[in-house]
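As a representative case, we now present a protein record of this kind.
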Amino acid sequence: MFDGWDEALIWSCLQGHMGTLLVSPDDTPKSAMIDIGDFCFLAGEPNTHILGSITGFKLLVPKDAPWELVIEDFFGKKVKKILRYAIKKEADVFHVATLTSYVTALDDCYELRLFDQTIFQLAQKESWSMDLCSQFRDFSDYQNRAIGVAILHDEKLVAGASPYATYDNGIEIEIDTKPEYRQKGLATVCGAKLILECLKRNIYPSWDAHDLRSVRLAEKLGYHLSHPYVTYELSEE
């Protein structure tokens, strides 16, 4: 049911790294949902039983138009239809010299560091940075499966790039910046540094864009846009 869906979060679940797979209660399941972090990916035949199991805020990603109709009918005004943007997964598109130039351009008032236990704990403390480590049980789990970079200012975490999920030989990149430090180029530095660290380790740094601003940053770092896709924001109430 998920065949041909080139999404890192789907791979993460199907390969047994993260997330939960739910199938319809049939002798031969015809519907399936992958629940991973804030995302639910829906495939197979549309099924309201599966939709009824979803609680709290979620981003619902249907594989096709029939799922869209059922989601809209089932949730009504609780869902908001938006577009996200799939980014191509291409080998050998990254220019090391260009990425390195972004990193070295960081102002001296900032400190660039790889994630350690101190930074992991700092990321857990504030809402803007929680997703830098939210999918890992603890730092030991993170240390065994992830690599992240952080920018500090006056010993305070102000930006970071880290895996939202992991899969075989790859990660899904999450980049976050403290609100008052945005528009300073810190996301570019974090993204470039994390990509360079992944290249050193033969790990592919997958990217999925929430909006066009994220697409522009991805393209600046060497990626190419694949296509927009429909997503539904499900409110908590």
About this structure: The chain has eight helices and twelve strands.
